Amino acid sequence: MKAPTFSLPDQMGKVHTLSDYKGKWIVLYFYPKDNTPGCIAEACGFRDKSEELKKRNVVVLGISKDSVDSHREFAKKHVITFPLLSDESKETIKAYDAWGIKTVLGKGFEGVLRKTYIIGPDGTIKKEYQHVNVLNHAEEVLRDIDLLSVS
Protein backbone atom coordinates (compact mmCIF):
# COMPACT_ATOMS: atom_id res chain seq x y z
CA MET A 1 0.00 0.00 0.00
CA LYS A 2 1.27 3.46 -0.89
CA ALA A 3 2.04 5.59 2.18
CA PRO A 4 -0.18 8.67 2.55
CA THR A 5 1.66 11.89 1.75
CA PHE A 6 2.19 14.62 4.32
CA SER A 7 3.70 18.07 4.70
CA LEU A 8 4.41 18.92 8.35
CA PRO A 9 6.75 21.20 10.32
CA ASP A 10 9.40 19.78 12.65
CA GLN A 11 10.61 21.12 16.00
CA MET A 12 12.60 23.85 14.21
CA GLY A 13 9.73 24.84 11.88
CA LYS A 14 11.25 23.13 8.82
CA VAL A 15 8.58 21.45 6.67
CA HIS A 16 9.05 17.78 5.80
CA THR A 17 7.20 15.84 3.11
CA LEU A 18 7.14 12.14 2.37
CA SER A 19 8.77 12.77 -1.02
CA ASP A 20 11.78 14.37 0.73
CA TYR A 21 12.82 10.84 1.68
CA LYS A 22 12.32 8.99 -1.59
CA GLY A 23 14.92 6.22 -1.88
CA LYS A 24 15.31 5.88 1.90
CA TRP A 25 13.69 3.65 4.47
CA ILE A 26 11.42 5.64 6.79
CA VAL A 27 10.39 4.78 10.32
CA LEU A 28 7.27 6.89 10.83
CA TYR A 29 6.06 6.64 14.39
CA PHE A 30 3.03 8.25 16.00
CA TYR A 31 3.06 9.02 19.69
CA PRO A 32 0.50 10.55 22.08
CA LYS A 33 2.27 13.41 23.87
CA ASP A 34 5.64 15.07 24.37
CA ASN A 35 7.33 14.62 27.76
CA THR A 36 5.27 11.65 28.94
CA PRO A 37 7.11 8.54 30.19
CA GLY A 38 6.25 6.20 27.31
CA CYS A 39 6.91 8.84 24.67
CA ILE A 40 10.26 9.74 26.24
CA ALA A 41 11.29 6.06 26.30
CA GLU A 42 10.27 5.55 22.67
CA ALA A 43 12.00 8.69 21.36
CA CYS A 44 15.16 7.98 23.35
CA GLY A 45 15.17 4.40 22.05
CA PHE A 46 15.24 5.68 18.47
CA ARG A 47 17.79 8.34 19.43
CA ASP A 48 20.07 5.69 20.92
CA LYS A 49 19.85 3.55 17.75
CA SER A 50 20.24 6.50 15.35
CA GLU A 51 23.73 5.58 14.14
CA GLU A 52 22.71 1.99 13.38
CA LEU A 53 19.61 3.25 11.58
CA LYS A 54 21.60 5.79 9.52
CA LYS A 55 24.00 3.02 8.41
CA ARG A 56 20.96 1.26 6.95
CA ASN A 57 19.73 4.38 5.08
CA VAL A 58 16.85 4.80 7.55
CA VAL A 59 15.23 8.09 8.53
CA VAL A 60 13.18 8.31 11.73
CA LEU A 61 10.25 10.73 11.91
CA GLY A 62 8.05 11.11 14.99
CA ILE A 63 4.57 12.62 14.74
CA SER A 64 2.17 13.86 17.40
CA LYS A 65 -0.47 16.57 17.60
CA ASP A 66 1.74 18.67 19.90
CA SER A 67 2.91 22.08 18.70
CA VAL A 68 6.25 22.94 17.11
CA ASP A 69 7.20 24.73 20.35
CA SER A 70 6.35 21.69 22.45
CA HIS A 71 8.42 19.48 20.12
CA ARG A 72 11.35 21.92 20.31
CA GLU A 73 11.37 21.77 24.13
CA PHE A 74 10.97 17.97 24.12
CA ALA A 75 13.79 17.48 21.60
CA LYS A 76 16.11 19.84 23.47
CA LYS A 77 15.44 18.29 26.86
CA HIS A 78 16.02 14.70 25.64
CA VAL A 79 18.60 15.43 22.90
CA ILE A 80 16.34 14.11 20.13
CA THR A 81 18.21 14.67 16.87
CA PHE A 82 15.63 13.42 14.37
CA PRO A 83 12.56 15.37 13.20
CA LEU A 84 9.50 15.48 15.43
CA LEU A 85 6.62 16.57 13.22
CA SER A 86 3.69 18.62 14.46
CA ASP A 87 0.23 17.62 13.17
CA GLU A 88 -2.08 19.89 15.15
CA SER A 89 -4.86 19.41 12.57
CA LYS A 90 -4.55 15.60 13.01
CA GLU A 91 -4.91 15.20 9.22
CA THR A 92 -1.82 13.00 8.81
CA ILE A 93 -2.48 11.18 12.08
CA LYS A 94 -5.93 10.22 10.80
CA ALA A 95 -4.62 9.34 7.30
CA TYR A 96 -2.36 6.76 8.96
CA ASP A 97 -5.21 5.48 11.15
CA ALA A 98 -3.38 6.61 14.29
CA TRP A 99 -6.33 8.44 15.86
CA GLY A 100 -8.90 6.55 17.87
CA ILE A 101 -10.39 5.56 21.18
CA LYS A 102 -7.91 4.92 23.97
CA THR A 103 -8.70 3.60 27.42
CA VAL A 104 -6.85 4.78 30.50
CA LEU A 105 -7.96 3.74 33.98
CA GLY A 106 -11.22 2.42 32.55
CA LYS A 107 -12.17 5.67 30.79
CA GLY A 108 -12.34 5.94 27.02
CA PHE A 109 -11.30 9.04 25.11
CA GLU A 110 -10.06 9.98 21.65
CA GLY A 111 -6.36 10.48 21.11
CA VAL A 112 -3.24 9.63 19.16
CA LEU A 113 -2.62 5.90 19.08
CA ARG A 114 0.96 4.68 19.45
CA LYS A 115 1.66 3.20 16.01
CA THR A 116 4.68 2.83 13.78
CA TYR A 117 5.08 2.28 10.06
CA ILE A 118 8.11 1.18 8.11
CA ILE A 119 7.95 2.77 4.67
CA GLY A 120 10.21 1.36 1.99
CA PRO A 121 12.42 3.33 -0.41
CA ASP A 122 9.63 2.99 -3.00
CA GLY A 123 7.14 4.87 -0.77
CA THR A 124 5.03 1.83 0.14
CA ILE A 125 4.19 0.68 3.65
CA LYS A 126 6.21 -2.45 4.37
CA LYS A 127 5.18 -3.02 7.98
CA GLU A 128 2.76 -1.62 10.55
CA TYR A 129 3.07 -1.94 14.32
CA GLN A 130 -0.22 -1.56 16.15
CA HIS A 131 1.08 -2.68 19.52
CA VAL A 132 4.33 -1.06 20.57
CA ASN A 133 6.49 -1.87 23.57
CA VAL A 134 8.36 1.43 24.00
CA LEU A 135 11.23 -0.23 25.87
CA ASN A 136 12.40 -2.39 22.96
CA HIS A 137 10.66 -0.88 19.94
CA ALA A 138 13.78 0.61 18.32
CA GLU A 139 15.55 -2.79 18.43
CA GLU A 140 12.45 -4.50 17.00
CA VAL A 141 12.28 -1.99 14.13
CA LEU A 142 15.99 -2.39 13.41
CA ARG A 143 15.63 -6.20 13.18
CA ASP A 144 12.61 -5.89 10.91
CA ILE A 145 14.34 -3.42 8.59
CA ASP A 146 17.20 -5.90 8.24
CA LEU A 147 14.71 -8.63 7.32
CA LEU A 148 12.78 -6.38 4.91
CA SER A 149 16.00 -5.18 3.26
CA VAL A 150 16.99 -8.68 2.18
CA SER A 151 13.54 -9.79 0.99
From TrEMBL:
Q: Name one GO cellular component term.
A: cytoplasm
List residues of the Thioredoxin domain.
1-150
Q: Key word Disulfide bond present in the record?
A: yes
State the active site: 39 (cysteine sulfenic acid (-soh) intermediate)
The keyword Magnesium belongs to this UniProt entry's keyword annotation: no
Among InterPro entries, the record links this protein to: AhpC/TSA, Peroxiredoxin_AhpC-typ, Peroxiredoxin_BCP/PrxQ, Thioredoxin-like_sf, Thioredoxin_domain
Please give the Pfam families that the UniProt record associates with this protein. Answer: AhpC-TSA (PF00578)
| PROSITE patterns reported for this sequence | THIOREDOXIN_2 (PS51352)
E.C. number:
1.11.1.24
Q: What biological-process terms (Gene Ontology) are attached?
A: cell redox homeostasis; cellular response to oxidative stress
Superkingdom per UniProt: Bacteria
Q: Which UniProt keywords apply?
A: Antioxidant, Disulfide bond, Oxidoreductase, Peroxidase, Redox-active center
A GO MF label: thioredoxin peroxidase activity
Gene3D superfamilies in UniProt: Glutaredoxin
Assembly and interaction partners: Monomer.
| Function noted in UniProt | Thiol-specific peroxidase that catalyzes the reduction of hydrogen peroxide and organic hydroperoxides to water and alcohols, respectively. Plays a role in cell protection against oxidative stress by detoxifying peroxides and as sensor of hydrogen peroxide-mediated signaling events.
Q: What protein is this chain from?
A: thioredoxin-dependent peroxiredoxin
Query: Origin organism of this chain?
Result: Candidatus Roizmanbacteria bacterium RIFOXYD1_FULL_38_12
